[in-house]
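Good morning,

Attaching, inline, the backbone tokens for the sequence recovery test we're adding to the shared suite. The designed sequence is right after.
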């Protein structure tokens, strides 16, 4: 699938519309995150916040890697049998 085809896929178009509509909420969350003190090599508090948020929004297998990055996996979407 080409990038142009992908951008026209109904799921991608739907996600883009949801993202555009949630702009103010996304900005508020970004501000909350950057206001958490996180000097270099001392980012545990910010990482802990992100771990909680990732779990709260439904990411799976949330963990920190060897350098402290917080990662999670999106759940696989349910496919209808229609």
């Amino acid at each position: 699938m080409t990038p142009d085809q992908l951008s026209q896929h109904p799921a991608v178009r739907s996600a883009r519309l949801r993202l555009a509509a949630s702009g103010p909420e996304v900005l508020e969350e970004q501000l909350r995150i950057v206001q958490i003190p996180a000097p270099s090599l001392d980012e545990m508090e910010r990482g802990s916040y992100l771990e909680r948020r990732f779990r709260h929004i439904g990411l799976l297998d949330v963990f920190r890697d060897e350098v402290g990055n917080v990662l999670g996996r999106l759940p696989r979407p349910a496919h209808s049998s229609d």
